[in-house]
């Protein structure tokens, strides 16, 4: 039975094409891993994360979001941020741990699939409370992929003997797998507002990071990963504090207070 294909404008196709670029980058990372070109594999996953970060935004800008695009994006994320990092880590060091090493990599990929499945089931739920908009539930897929390969990134800059230890790498992957499927809040930059007095300093910091990424890419990426891991407890604490105030004071008060905090003028209202 022939399937009818409707004509589509380029605007409606563009986000899906970018998603396919992300998927291609993830598959290319696996190819580089098979050739033991692990630095290029990490760069390929980085490009997959960049494409994944812009496809949804472009879809919303062009008003071309669709259920097909959402499903394609999730499938791409499973491969690029779940399967590809797991295979890279296995080929890099976890293969020396035998069946245990393979099991750890499988758990990582499975948790990525579970996280994305949970995300898809939450799409139709009512809007989150206003205080929750600046947080993810668990570690998002691209960040989880980066944290999973963080020991590999650090090994490019420092002595590989310590960072390539299957015990350390396995512990990191299991920790990240848990963070993916957990309900621990993590910071989201989607609605983050920069106070006026911090705009110029932030631009300077971004410029400095760009320069460091060119001159010392692996050390810089490693530092970013460590800082992100360190931010998770602060995100959880901030979320609990806002939720407690929402329960005590009501949603409208906390929404106003969260906006004031974004502007850097929040006051203590206890």
Structure overview:
With 270 residues, the chain is mainly alpha-helical. Helix content is 73%, strand content 2%. The protein has helices at 10-34, 38-61, 67-92, 98-121, 141-148, 150-157, 160-163, 166-181, 199-215, 217-249, 251-262; strands at residues 135-137, 185-187. A two-stranded antiparallel sheet has the order 1-2. Helix 6 runs antiparallel to helix 10 and helix 10 (217-249) packs antiparallel against helix 11. The longest helix has 33 residues, at 217-249. It is globular and about 55 Å long. Mean pLDDT is 83; it is low at 1-5 and 261-270.
Task: Please specify the SSE layout and strand pairing.
Elements: H1 10-34, H2 38-61, H3 67-92, H4 98-121, E1 135-137, H5 141-148, H6 150-157, H7 160-163, H8 166-181, E2 185-187, H9 199-215, H10 217-249, H11 251-262
Antiparallel strand pairs: 1-2
